[in-house]
């Protein structure tokens, strides 16, 4: 009888222990290992886009060159030669010259922003655009025998463009 009580006690302790360990309902703090060894830093956001200077014919003759830029780090060190892609966005807000860029020696992914055709329509508005870093270990080629291979997104970076 004594032995049965000990076994029951041990079973109760294990059930309580396993149940308690499985009920972690707290959110993990941001910046944890869930994003892996990679991180985006030094993003140019928000970026204020001023009205372009146009001549009497409506041709843009000045107003500044804008770069949308973010630095890719791996374990805290700049990561060069990696592909970062800008998600397509409505061309009414302009466009980037290259939607896919390689990071430079400093780990910077630099997108050249171009004005929209009609800046006056969007003056005073904001838009959020997004850069994406996919898992570099995954193959990019399409599968000739089925669905295309879906690449895993490791990082995203939002940029706010403010048209003033």
Distance between the termini: 83 Å
Number of DSSP strands? 12
| Rg measurement, Å | 25 Å
Average pLDDT, rounded to a whole number, is 83
**Shape field:** elongated
Helix content: 10-25%
- What is the H/E string? HEEEEEEEEEEHEE
The main pleated sheet reads as: 5 strands, antiparallel
| Distinct helical segment count | 2
The secondary-structure class comes to alpha+beta
**Unreliable segments (pLDDT under 50, ≥5 consecutive)?**
24-34
Report the portion of residues in β strands. Answer: 35-45%
Written overview of the protein:
- With 164 residues, the protein is an alpha+beta fold.
- The chain is 15% helix and 36% strand.
- The chain is built from two helices and twelve strands; from the N terminus they run H-E-E-E-E-E-E-E-E-E-E-H-E-E.
- Strands 1, 5, 6, 8 and 10 form a five-stranded antiparallel beta sheet that branches. It has a five-stranded mixed beta sheet with strand order 2-12-11-7-9, with no helix packed on it. Strands 3-4 form a two-stranded antiparallel sheet.
- The longest helix is centred in the first third of the chain and has 20 residues, at 2-21.
- The termini are far apart.
- The model is unreliable at 24-34 (pLDDT under 50).
Observed structural traits:
164 residues; 5-stranded antiparallel sheet; 5-stranded mixed sheet; 2 helices; 15% helix
Write the layout of secondary structure elements.
Blueprint: H1 2-21, E1 38-41, E2 47-49, E3 53-54, E4 60-62, E5 66-74, E6 77-78, E7 83-86, E8 95-96, E9 100-102, E10 108-114, H2 119-122, E11 126-134, E12 153-163
Parallel strand pairs: 2-12
Antiparallel strand pairs: 1-5, 3-4, 5-6, 5-10, 7-9, 7-11, 8-10, 11-12
